[in-house]
Design a protein that fits this description.
The chain is mainly alpha-helical and 227 residues long.
Length: 227
């Protein structure tokens, strides 16, 4: 979990926001609605203390929007069409990626598990999800270790030299994290205790209320044919 000085949100709020944004992205393909969703996501990330990340996402969005709206009308050929398609696809899924990264970097595994216990999620779902929370950060560390080892040995960068050890590390990491989760007693059917205090705070209520208002407004506009 990152040590930021911004607002903290309940893990349940974060999951609900991610699900809501996914549903809203499927609701409309309007550019202005996409901009509203993206702006909402970077505002949430910014008030959580990750202002630098919010700035990077803003630059990426503007770059992809510029490619789509500024260069695509003048592009010709397969390469330019491919660039435009990739840029558009990445931009469409950028709000989901922003929230996904935000959840992974601002949520402790124990905090997430405690929240899932509170909503009485089945153990068959809690264990895989808790492993996922540690999986991606661990794979990132493995990636850095592989690159450092290649640099020390003077091995040139290639797909084979990166993907083969990374895939092997991914398999080992998944097995080790699963074993660690079981060793911590996550599969125990009895009552669990946790030192993490998980509860809805004022900021959770405000953000969820605003998001549900936005969703209701979007559904209304979709119903009357404006969106």
């Amino acid at each position: 979990m990152s040590t930021n000085k911004g607002l903290t949100f309940d893990p349940r709020t974060k999951i609900l926001l991610l699900l809501l944004v996914n549903l809203l992205l499927l609701l409309s393909h309007s550019l202005w609605f996409e901009i509203v969703l993206f702006t909402s996501c970077i505002v949430i990330v910014g008030i959580s203390g990750q202002v630098k990340s919010a700035g990077h996402f803003l630059i990426a969005f503007l770059l992809m929007l510029g490619i789509d709206r500024g260069l695509t009308p003048y592009m010709r050929g397969f390469v330019f069409t491919l660039v435009s398609f990739v840029s558009l696809a990445l931009r469409k899924f950028l709000p989901c990626f922003i929230l996904g990264k935000w959840i992974l970097t601002t949520t402790e595994v124990s905090e997430f598990v405690a929240a899932m216990w509170k909503i009485h999620l089945p153990q068959t779902a809690i264990i895989p999800l808790s492993v996922v929370f540690r999986y991606f950060p661990t794979i990132k560390e493995e990636w850095g270790a592989i690159r450092a080892a290649m640099k020390m040995r003077g091995i040139h960068v290639s797909l084979e030299h990166i993907m083969v050890p990374l895939l092997m590390s991914a398999i080992n990491v998944s097995e080790e994290l699963s074993a660690a989760a079981l060793c911590r007693g996550l599969d125990n059917p009895g009552e669990h205790t946790c030192m993490c205090k998980v509860e809805f705070q004022q900021q959770d209520k405000i953000v969820l209320l605003l998001c549900f208002i936005l969703a209701a407004f979007a559904i209304f506009l979709k119903g009357v044919g404006i969106l």
